């Protein structure tokens, strides 16, 4: 328990640092912009991310850090917000409450086509892709004492499938369906935010939890560092998912990132998606151009900001996108020959 608390403290500290990098000074800036006409006009943009122990939150921080360095040149001030995840971010961007957000590639596809969570609302015509970032895997962790060795063993257990605004909730539902399980009937499903799940599994309040995230993540470090022993459970019958959904790919979760996990194999089989950076057609071309240019022109520095970006290439950052690419981003890709 002590270890978990220490980790939580560590995460809070990291959050404070990320906030200091990404946010801060907004009020002073607004005041200065309003009173000092010699300064370039300030544009404030907010990036929606995910829970603070995920990888979206530091990803928003990494993008904000790179862009805010050139504040004098562009007049753009980027701030980062912790949110419920992909679905929340896309909907908030469409509502004009956020300018940018990180969202799973499968969610970008579904919103663009008007399926899954967007079945009632229809295609999100104004959703625009900027670039993709790290790979994410869909994982199930379970407490060793709950005797869960496959998805079929979830019957009758308490399982977090994710909050409604998250991207991973649908991944959990799809994985369950591929293994003949229904979340409404076969077990006690919880709709918790990702940040809460590691603490609750350690406290014995839930037996297992799904999450879709890049690696390494604070979430799994926290979940696997407590007294209650935790393991990653392989997700079977993936072929039926791949045949049905164009946005899923086979993947493996590497255990070297989580030495506290009880697994003995190097990797656990599963499926995955990509984290993507999205915006709205209503966001100005100059703003999207500036952000794209700064991230790509400072690619080496950017990839050092989180270990989940290891192995990332500029070319790969233009894959996994299903919404139209924003014209501001496209202008940059054409200039440098990436399109
Ligand atoms: N993929 C998760 C979601 O959209 C968020 C992961 C993260 O925050 O890194 O729900």
Write the layout of secondary structure elements.
Layout: H1 2-22, H2 26-35, E1 43-48, H3 56-68, H4 71-74, E2 76-81, H5 86-94, E3 100-104, H6 105-113, E4 127-143, E5 158-160, H7 168-178, E6 188-190, H8 197-202, E7 208-213, H9 218-223, E8 230-233, H10 238-244, E9 249-254, E10 267-280, H11 285-297, H12 299-303, H13 327-335
Parallel strand pairs: 1-2, 1-3, 5-6, 5-7
Antiparallel strand pairs: 3-10, 4-7, 4-8, 4-10, 9-10
Helix pairs in contact: 1-3, 11-13
The structure holds glutamic acid (GLU).
Residues 50-51, 54-56, 85-86, 104, 136, 166-168, 212-214 line the site of glutamic acid.
Explain the overall architecture.
The chain is α/β, with parallel strands linked by helices and 339 residues long. The chain folds into two domains: 153 residues, 3-Layer(aba) Sandwich (D-Maltodextrin-Binding Protein, domain 2), CATH 3.40.190.10; 138 residues, D-Maltodextrin-Binding Protein, domain 2 (3-Layer(aba) Sandwich), CATH 3.40.190.10. The chain has 13 helices and ten strands. It is globular, with a radius of gyration of 20 Å. The relative contact order is 0.17. About 7% of the residues have low confidence. It binds glutamic acid. Glutamic acid (GLU) binds next to strand 7.
